[in-house]
Amino acid sequence: MNARSSRDDDARPYLVEVRNVTKRFPGVVALGNASLAIRPGEVHALLGENGAGKSTLIKLLSGVYKPDAGTILVNGEPRNISSPREAQGLGITTIYQEHTLAADLSPIENIFLGRELRAGRSGSILVNRSAMRARAQELWAQFGGDRRDLSRPVAELGGLKQRLIEIIKALAFEATLVIMDEPTAQLPDDERDTLLSHIRAMRDRGVAVLLVTHRLDELAGTVDRVTVFRDGQWIDTIPMAETNVDAIIRKMVGRDVGSMAAAAARSLSQSLPETAPEVLSVTGLSRRGVLNNVSLTLRAGEILGIGGLAGSGRTELARAIIGADPIDAGEIWANGRTISPASPAEAVRAGIFMVPEERKVLGIVAGLDVARNITISAPGKIASSTFVQRRRERSVAANYVDELRIKTRGPAEHIENLSGGNQQKVLFARALFSDPNIIIVDEPTQGIDVGAKTEVYRLIRNFVAKGRSVIVISSELPELLGLSDRVMVMREGRKAGELSVPIGAAADPAQMAEMQRQVMALATGGNVGK
Amino acid sequence: MRTREVPTPSDTGFGATETFRRLIGRPGAGIFLFLVCFLPILSLFAPQMLQEGNLAGILNQMVFILIPTLGMTIVIISGGIDLSVGSVIGLSGGVAAFLLTVGVPMPVAILLAIISGAMIGAINGLVITRLKVPDFVATLAMMGVARGILYVWTNGIPFRDYMGDAYYIIGGLRMIVGKLTLPVFVALALLLILTFLLRRTHLGAHFRATGSNAEAAKLSGIRPDRIKMLAYIASGALAAVTGVMLAGRLTTVHPAMGSGYELETIAAAVMGGAALSGGRGSFWGALVGALTLTVIQNAINILNIESTWENVIIGSIILFAVLIDRAAMALSRGGSRRNASN
After folding, report:
1. A74, A125, B24, B288 - which has most CB atoms within 10 Å?
2. Mind listing the domains of chain B with CATH numbers?
3. Residue ranges of the alpha helices (H) in A154-236?
4. What span, in angstroms and rounded, lies between the C-alpha atoms of B301 and B297?
5. A402, A433, A464 — which closes off a domain?
6. E strands present in A83-220
7. Contacts of A409 (CB under 8 A, 6+ apart)
C-alpha cells in the first residue's frame, strides 16, 4: 500500500474545490449546496447511489453544465468553466463512461485530435506526424503498450486499451486532474486490476484522479479519500484508511428510506400463499460475456425484484428470457411448458410481456397516437380479418385510459404530448392488452415524478392481485424492496444472491436500511457479511 | 489518407503478416486485388483491352468519374452524402459554356463555373448544418433545383458554339502527352494535392473524426459543422471542375448533362472502401473504385455485351466489391480484433 498518509499533505492548497454549488433542472434539484475538495495528486472517489448528483457534479467540473449558485476554485482561484475546452485549459480532463474516441481513427489521431502538433513554427498548417507519433509512443510505453497498437483504428483495440488511450489523451495535454466516470465498468477482472494499477501510477506522478465508481471493492488500495453524496447533498469526505466499505455503504444509503419504500409497499393483508404455483422457471441461462448460469423462479401472484448495478446483466437477463437476445445455454419454462422464444413476439404468445427501460428509445412509438401505441403489439385483437378497425381500437384504448387513469385528451392524442409518467402507463396498457400472465418491467419509474411513481406501483400491484406475476428491474433500492416479495441481485452477469422481503419490512426504516445495505453489498461485491 | 500507411523506417519490426494485414485493411484494397486478378482473365477473352490505345482510353474516360468521386469521398468520410453532384456537373458546365458564348475570357469563365459549384456546395452545407436538414434530403432537393435551373435556363435547347481550340484540350479531345489528355493530369494533380492536404494537415483526421464520432470531435474542440461545410464545398467545386471539362468533351451542354453521375460517384467511392456510416474511406480507394467502374464499362463495350445488360452487371459488381471490401477488412482485423467497438 502506498506510504502516503492521508494527513501529511493537508497544508497543500486544494487543486480543485467545489463550494456550495447548486444545480437545478426543471422539477429537480440535482445538486443542493454541494461541496468537494480535491488535493493535488490524490485519487479521490466520488460515491453515491443513482441520482445522488455525481454525474451533475462531473459535468459542472468539465464545463458541460454551469452552476446556478456556488463557486468552483481551481488552484485557489474562482473560475467560470464554460466549455469542455476551457476545463481542459485549466488542466481538468474528463473521461466519460461512453467512449469519447473516434473509432475509425488511430490512437495517435485521437490523442491529438483538434490539438495537432504543428510542423515548424506555430501557425503552420502542416502537422508534425513524427512528433505526434514519438510523443504518443513515449506515453504509451509508460503504460506498457505495444506501439503497433498506435496506428490501427481504435475500434480494433479492446476496452482496456481504449480506456488507456483516453487517459493518454488527457496526459498529453498536461492534465492535473483526470475525472473518470466508471472507468472499470465492462472490464473483466484482470483488465480492471491493470487499469487500477495505472491509475495509482498516475497519482504517483502527481496527477489527481477523481474516480466515480459503483464497484466498492476497488476502493481499498487505490483510493486516498472518499466523498459520499446522497440526493444531491454532500454527506461526508473521509480518508479511505480511516473507513471501510461497510461504513461507506451506510453513508450512501442513509437512514431516511422509509417513504419511497412505503409508497411501493404492498398492504399487509396481501401475502403470497405458500401454495402459489410456479409460472416461470429459468435454469442455467447463459450468454457469452453477458450472462453466466443464471436461474430464477417466479410464482403466481409474486413480484420478483432484480437488483444490481447498471451493466450487471439485469436487463440482459430479461431480454434473454423474452427472446430479444439469443442465448448460449439454459432452459426457460413458462406456464406449463418449456419455451425457447426466438423473438419477443413468441414470448408474448407464451404469456410474457416486457416493458423496456428507456421509454423514449425502446418503448413508445413516436408519431403514433395513444390508441395505436396501446394496441400495436396485438393488432389481431382489434382487427376484422386483415384490417385494423380504427373505431374498435379507439374504444379499447379509451377503456385503458380510464382504467389506468392516463392523463390525456383522448386516445387520438399523439403519444409525445403525454408526460413521462403517462407514457409509462400507456406502455403498461400495451402490456395488459396482450393479456400476458407475466410482465417484466425494466426501470418502470425512470425519470417520472413521485406522484406518477405511486400510480405505476398501483398498476403493478393490481396486476399481481389477479394472481399474475411481475418481474421488476430497478436501480432504486427503496422501490425495489418496497415492491418485491423477493429480490434477486445480479453482479457481473451472475446471480450474486437473493433476499426475501418480509411482510411489513417497508414500514420499518431500520429493517429497510439494513436490507438496502445487503443488496448494495451483493451488487458491489463489497465484503460486508457481518 | 488513412494513417495505416506502409511502415516507415521507425516502425521496423512488423512481420510480413502484420504488413499484409495493414495493407489488406486499407479502404479499397479488396477491390484492388479483385481488379488485378480480373484484368488478365478479361484480357484472355478480349485481348484488345490491354492494348496501349485502349488503356489510355480507359484512363482518359475514368478521370471524369474520379474527380467528382474525390469530392464524394470527402463528403462520405465526414458522414454525409451528396446527391447533387450530377446536377452541379451539368449546371457548372452550363455556366462555363454560356459565359464563353457571350465572350467572357476562358480563364474567367472557368473560374466562375467552379465558384458556382463551390457555392452550391456551400448552400448544401448551410442547409445541413444550420437548418438541420438530413444530408440525403438536402442534397436530393439541391439535385432537383440545380437541374431544374439548367432546364429553365437553356429552355431545353443545349448550349453550343463555345468550343475554341483551347477547349478541345480542356475537354480531353486532344491528347497532350502520348495518348493521354489534359483531364488525366488535372485529376492526377487534384489527387496529389488532396492527398497531401489530408495527410499532412489536420484536415484528414478532422474529416474522419466528424464522420466517425461527431460528439468526440466536438469534445476535442473541433467544430463538426465547419468540417461538413468544407466537405460539401469541396464536393461542389470538384463536381464543377468535372462539369467544365465534360462540357468540352461533349462539345454541347445538354440540360441533362451529368445526370446519373451522383450514383456512379457514390458507387465508385463505396467500391473504394468509403463507409456510408462515415469515418472511413480514401482517395486511392476512390481511384481504384473509379478505375474498376470504367474497366467494367470498357469490357462490356469491347465484348459487345448488349448495353441492356450493362446496368445489371455493374450493379452486381458494386455489391460484390462491397462484400470483398468487408471481407478484406475482417481479414485485416482478424486476430487483432478483440473486444472491439461497442
Report:
1. B288
2. 52-325 (1.10.3470)
3. 159-171, 189-204
4. 6
5. A433
6. 92-95, 177-181, 208-212
7. none
| Residues of chain A contacting B5 with CB distance shorter than 8 Å | 151
Single-letter residue type at A45: A
Nearest by Cα to A529 from A308, A316, A245, A302 = A245
How far A349 CA sits from the closest chain B CA (Å)? 32
Q: What is the CATH number of the domain that holds A154?
A: 3.40.50.300
Interface confidence, given as ipTM, is 0.83
- For position A528, what pLDDT does the model report? 46
The strand order across the sheet containing A438-442 reads A352-355, A438-442, A469-473, A303-308, A486-491, A494-500
> Which of A229-243, A310-324, B61-75, B300-314 tops mean pLDDT?
B61-75
d(CA A511, CA B47): 89
Does residue B277 sit at the A interface (CB-CB below 8 Å)? no
Residue A398 structural domain: 365-433
For A107-143, the pLDDT digits (tens) are 999 999 988 888 877 677 888 989 999 999 998 988 8
Let me know: does B160 contact B100? Beta carbons within 8 Å. Answer: no
Put simply, whether B280 touches A (Cβ < 8 Å) is yes
pTM attached to this predicted model? 0.75
Q: How far apart are CA A435 and CA A377, in angstroms?
A: 11
> b/e string for A20-37 if b means 16 or more Cβ within 10 A?
ebebeeeeebbbbebbbb
CB neighbourhood size of B173 (10 A): 16
The residue among A353, A349, A322 whose CA lies nearest residue A429 is A353
A489, A307 Cβ separation under 8 angstroms: yes
Q: Is residue A76 part of a domain?
A: yes
What is the side-by-side order of every strand in the sheet holding A208-212?
A92-95, A177-181, A208-212, A43-47, A225-230, A233-239
A87 plus A173 within the same structural domain: yes
Q: Do A277 and A297 sit in the same domain of this protein? A: yes
Joined together, the cell numbers standing for residue B276 give 456510408
* Separation CA A400–CA A55 (nearest Å): 37
Chain B CB contacts of A148 below 8 Å: 14, 18
